[in-house]
Request: fold
Amino acid sequence: MAARKRAAEKKERRAGESGDEEAPEELSFRKAKAEAVEKRRLAAESAQREKALLKEKRRRREELFKEQKKRKLLPNTVLEEITSTCRPRADEECTIQEQGDDMENAATSSEDSEAEAVNARLQESYRAVHLKAHDQLSLQEQAAKDFIQSRLYGPGSNRTTVNHLFSLTNKRGLVKKPAMQFVDNTWGTEKKQKAKRFKLHWIHKQRTILKT
Reply:
């Protein structure tokens, strides 16, 4: 009887120990599941926030684009100057006060009429450009010309310009003549004096070479 009782107590103790061992595993599984659900929820909220931010940025960009587009329209004063230059000069007898009144009246016109006037006037013979872009284009053209000039007539090339060739012919001939570019009387006196000094120096150098 005592042996059976001890065996039953051991069995109950083992069952209690096994239950204690299984409880943490079940608890850890529930905790991991809850954490996974929470992470999924946070990820969904983060995605929604990012989507809302992108939508807001897109809306602000569109508003800024529209505002800049409106600002790029020419002002009424410029339109008045353009229209005055396009018209024939039959209104030269108008006074300065009348011109000021016309500019004030043009300044009070609406944006719609301003845009229509811009399109109507610019389509005739004028084109609006940004000065910065125009300067950049000029610099690019100048850089391209310099590049072509250096490639065609730079050091190491066997080419020369017509003026330079004629100038060399005039200098190396039996009858010495001035350089081709100084034959034109419209050139400045300073350049002519420099050319004259250079010619005298060259003649003196040639004489010293012949004497030696």
User: Anything to note?
Assistant: The longest helix spans residues 2-71.
